[in-house]
Write a structure and sequence with these properties.
By secondary structure, this protein is α+β, with helices and mostly antiparallel strands.
Length: 668
C-alpha cells in the first residue's frame, strides 16, 4: 500500500462521487439533529418524526460505507496508475529513503521494489562521484522547502554497472500542516535518446571531416599531410603515417602526431606489418604492438609509446599504392567496423591524392623534359640556374655554365634529312651524359643548342669538361662550347651571356678552320670562278626576291672572296672580281654554314667595324651555297644601304634560289 497523498488527475471522477456522498451524510446528520430538537419541544408527539430519524441513520451508515468503498477503489486505481506509468515514479522521504517506486523505475535501476523500498536512494542509485553532491542538494531543498529547479538531468547507476541518463521532474510533498514530508519525482530514461543523439553528432562530425578531406584532396597540390591529419582526427589515434613504395623500400612520406616517423624506410622483403599489408593488400591489426613480431623494431624505436597498430592498404585499381598506419598510445582491443570503414574511406582519398600527385609529377616531368632527347628543357634550366647560384653563394663554392652548339647542324639536316638530324641530337645527348657527373645538369634549349650547369666546378674543371664533350660528340663537324664561371656578382642572365660570348668565340674559331678545310677547297678548285650570264640573272632574281637594291653570288677560298655574279653593286671589289678574305662580309655565312641575317650592320658585333659598312652596306642577308657533298662553296647575298628587317619569307626564297645557283655553278 502506498503511504503518501495521491493527486493524480485521472482519479477526479471517483473523488468527486465521494465528495457527493459525504455531503449527503452531512445533510442526514443535520436532519437527525432537527428531529431530536423537535422531540424535545413536542414531547410525545415526537413519535411522528421517528421514521425520519430511523431513515436518517440508515442513510448515514450507507453513505459512510460507500465513501469507504470509493476511497479503496480510488487508491487501487492510483496504485495501478503509479505502477503502470511509462515514466519512472519515485517517492522519497525527507532523508532520501525510498517510500515507493514504480515498475518503470525498478527497470531503469535493475532492482526490485523489495530491494529499493526503504533503501537510501542516493547510495544505491547515484554514481560514487555524484552521491555526496546529490545528497547535499536534496537536503538543502528539503530544508528550504522550495524547489528552485523542477527539471534536472541525473545519471543513475543500474545494478549491472551501466550508467543511465534520466531527466527528472520533481515536486515537494506536504502534510496537512504544510510541512515537507518528502519529494515525488517523475523521471524519463533518455539514455537511448542521448546515445542516438551522440551517434548522430559523431556521424555529422565524421561526415564533415570526410567532406573536408575530399576538399583538401581536390584543392591541395600535396594532400598527403591532410589525409593523415584527418585520419588521426577520425580515429582518435596518437599518430597516423602514410607510407609509399620507392623501389625495393617502403618509405613513410607523411605523418600526423608527435612521432619522428617521416623518412623511415622498410624493405619490401621484411616481415614487417607494412610490408605484409603492401604485399597482400589486406588490412591488419595488432592489439599488442610491443610483443607482435610483425611490427618493425625501427617503428617501435621511434614510437615507443605505441600500444596498438592498425595498417590498411591504400589501393588503386586493385594494386596497393601505399599503407596507412594508425597508432594508439592506449590499448585497443579491436578496430570497430565503423573505424575500419572511416579509415577505408580515408584510404580511398589517400589513393586519389597519391594518383593525383603521381599525375602531377608526370605532367611536371613532361613540362620540364625535351621530348626528342629526353633531356631537361629550358623551363627546368630557368628554374635550376637561380637555385644553383644561391647554393653556391651559401656554400662558398664555384659554379660554371657551358653553352653548346653543334657545328654545321643545318647542313647535316639539309644533306641527310631531318630524321638523321633528330638521331644525331639523341646520340649527342646520350654521349654527353656518359661523360658528365651525376650532379651536372645538361638541358636542350632548342634546335642544336644545349646548356650545361656545372655545380662545384671552377675554370679548369669547366674547360676540361668542354674538351670531354667535344671528344664525345658523334658528329664530324664537332661541337662548339663556351664556358663561364660565376663571379659571385653577376646575375644568371649575365653569366649565360658570358658563356654565349665564349661559345661565339669558339664557333668563330671553328668557322675559320672550316674555311681552310681541304675538302671544301678541293670542291672550289673544281669550279670555274668566272661568272656567267645565268648567274647574273640569278643575282637579279635574288635582289627581286629579297626586295633589296643589290645582290651577289660569291665563292670563298682560303684567301679571297670571289664575286662571280652581282646585281646593283659597283666599286673596286666588283671591278676586281672580289676582295681579300679579311674584308669579306660573306665569310660569316660560309664559316657558319647557315643563313646570316643582319638588320643593321652598325649594331652587329661582327660587322660594326667591317669595311663593308664604311662602303655603305647597312643591311645584309646571306644564305650558304652547299654542294651535294655538303661542302659550303660560298654565299648568295642581298644588300641594302639602309637598315631594314628581313622576313622569313625573304630568307626562305634566297635558300630556294641558292639550290639553282649551286646547280649552275657545278654544271659541267
Amino acid at each position: 500500500m502506498l503511504q503518501f497523498p495521491l493527486r493524480p488527475t485521472g482519479l477526479a471522477p471517483a473523488l468527486s462521487d465521494a465528495r457527493h456522498r459525504r455531503l449527503l451524510t452531512w445533510l442526514l446528520d443535520a436532519l437527525t439533529l432537527l428531529v431530536a430538537a423537535l422531540t424535545v419541544v413536542m414531547g410525545h408527539a415526537a413519535w411522528l418524526v421517528l421514521p425520519l430519524v430511523v431513515l436518517s441513520a440508515v442513510a448515514r451508515v450507507s453513505a459512510n460505507a460507500a465513501v469507504r468503498r470509493s476511497d479503496r477503489a480510488s487508491r487501487r486505481q492510483a496504485e495501478r496508475y503509479f505502477q503502470k506509468a511509462g515514466t519512472m515514479l519515485l517517492d522519497l522521504d525527507r532523508e532520501g529513503r525510498v517510500r515507493a517506486i514504480n515498475e518503470a523505475g525498478c527497470a531503469v535501476v535493475g532492482r526490485s521494489a523489495e530491494e529499493l523500498v526503504g533503501a537510501d536512494w542516493f547510495a544505491i542509485a547515484l554514481t560514487s562521484e555524484y552521491e555526496p553532491q546529490g545528497r547535499a542538494a536534496y537536503a538543502e531543498v528539503i530544508g528550504r522547502g522550495e524547489l528552485r529547479r523542477e527539471h534536472v538531468d541525473l545519471e543513475l547507476v543500474a545494478s549491472c554497472g551501466e550508467v543511465r541518463h534520466v531527466q527528472w521532474h520533481s515536486e515537494l510533498l506536504h502534510d496537512e500542516h504544510g510541512r515537507v514530508t518528502g519529494m515525488l519525482c517523475a523521471g524519463t530514461d533518455v539514455t537511448d535518446r542521448r546515445r542516438m543523439e551522440e551517434q548522430l553528432q559523431a556521424e555529422q562530425r565524421e561526415l564533415g571531416a570526410l567532406h573536408r578531406l575530399a576538399q583538401d584532396v581536390g584543392a591541395l597540390e600535396d594532400a598527403r599531410p591532410a589525409v593523415v591529419e584527418h585520419v588521426r582526427s577520425l580515429t582518435g589515434a596518437a599518430w597516423v603515417a602514410l607510407s609509399e613504395r620507392e623501389g625495393d623500400e617502403i618509405v613513410v612520406t607523411a605523418v600526423a602526431g608527435e612521432v619522428p616517423l617521416r623518412g623511415v624506410r622498410v624493405n619490401v622483403e621484411d616481415r614487417s606489418l607494412q610490408a605484409k599489408v603492401m604485399a597482400s593488400g589486406r588490412a591488419v591489426f595488432a592489439a599488442e604492438a610491443a610483443t607482435d613480431e610483425r611490427i618493425s623494431p625501427r617503428l617501435l624505436e621511434v614510437a615507443p609509446d605505441t600500444r596498438s597498430i592498425y595498417c590498411r592498404p591504400v589501393m588503386a585499381s586493385r594494386s596497393p599504392l601505399g599503407v596507412l598506419t594508425v597508432g594508439w598510445h592506449r590499448p585497443v582491443a579491436s578496430v570497430s567496423v565503423r573505424e575500419a570503414a572511416l579509415v577505408a574511406v580515408a584510404g580511398h582519398e589517400a589513393s586519389v591524392a597519391l594518383e593525383r600527385r603521381a599525375t602531377v609529377r608526370r605532367l611536371e616531368a613532361l613540362a620540364l623534359t625535351d621530348a626528342l632527347t629526353e633531356l631537361p628543357n629550358r623551363r627546368l634550366w630557368d628554374r635550376e640556374l637561380p637555385i644553383a647560384l644561391a647554393r653556391a653563394r651559401r656554400s662558398q663554392t664555384d659554379v660554371a655554365v657551358a653553352m653548346l652548339d653543334l657545328n654545321a647542324f643545318k647542313q647535316h639536316n639539309d644533306v641527310h634529312g631531318h630524321d638523321a638530324g633528330d638521331t644525331l641530337l639523341r646520340e649527342a645527348a646520350r654521349a654527353w651524359q656518359d661523360v658528365l657527373r651525376g650532379t651536372d645538369v645538361l638541358v636542350r634549349l632548342g634546335g642544336d643548342e644545349f646548356a650545361l650547369l656545372l655545380p662545384d666546378c671552377g675554370q679548369d674543371g669547366a674547360e676540361a669538361t668542354a674538351l670531354r664533350l667535344q671528344d664525345a660528340v658523334p658528329h664530324g663537324a664537332g661541337v662548339s662550347v663556351g664556358v663561364a664561371v660565376w663571379d659571385r656578382v653577376e646575375t644568371g642572365d649575365e653569366l649565360v651571356r658570358r658563356a654565349d660570348q665564349a661559345l661565339y668565340a669558339d664557333k668563330a674559331t671553328a668557322r675559320e678552320a672550316r674555311l681552310e678545310d681541304p675538302a671544301r677547297l678541293a670542291a672550289l678548285a673544281a669550279l670555274a670562278l668566272a661568272g656567267s650570264a645565268e648567274l647574273d640573272r640569278l643575282a637579279e632574281v635574288a635582289a627581286w626576291l629579297a626586295e633589296a637594291p643589290s645582290a651577289a653570288v660569291t665563292l670563298l677560298d682560303d684567301q679571297r672572296q670571289h664575286i662571280v655574279a652581282s646585281c646593283g653593286l659597283s666599286g673596286p671589289a666588283v671591278e676586281e672580281g672580289g676582295t681579300a678574305l679579311s674584308g669579306a662580309i660573306c665569310r660569316h655565312t660560309v664559316a657558319s654554314g647557315r643563313p646570316f641575317v643582319v638588320a643593321d650592320c652598325r649594331e652587329h658585333p661582327l660587322l660594326v667595324d667591317h669595311p663593308a659598312v664604311a662602303d655603305g652596306v647597312l643591311a645584309y642577308a646571306g644564305v650558304p651555297l652547299v654542294d651535294a657533298d655538303g661542302q659550303v662553296l660560298g654565299a648568295l647575298c642581298a644588300f641594302d644601304g639602309q637598315p631594314r628587317a628581313w622576313s622569313d619569307d625573304h630568307v626562305s626564297a634566297l635558300q630556294t634560289l641558292a639550290v639553282r645557283v649551286v646547280a649552275s655553278l657545278t654544271r659541267p
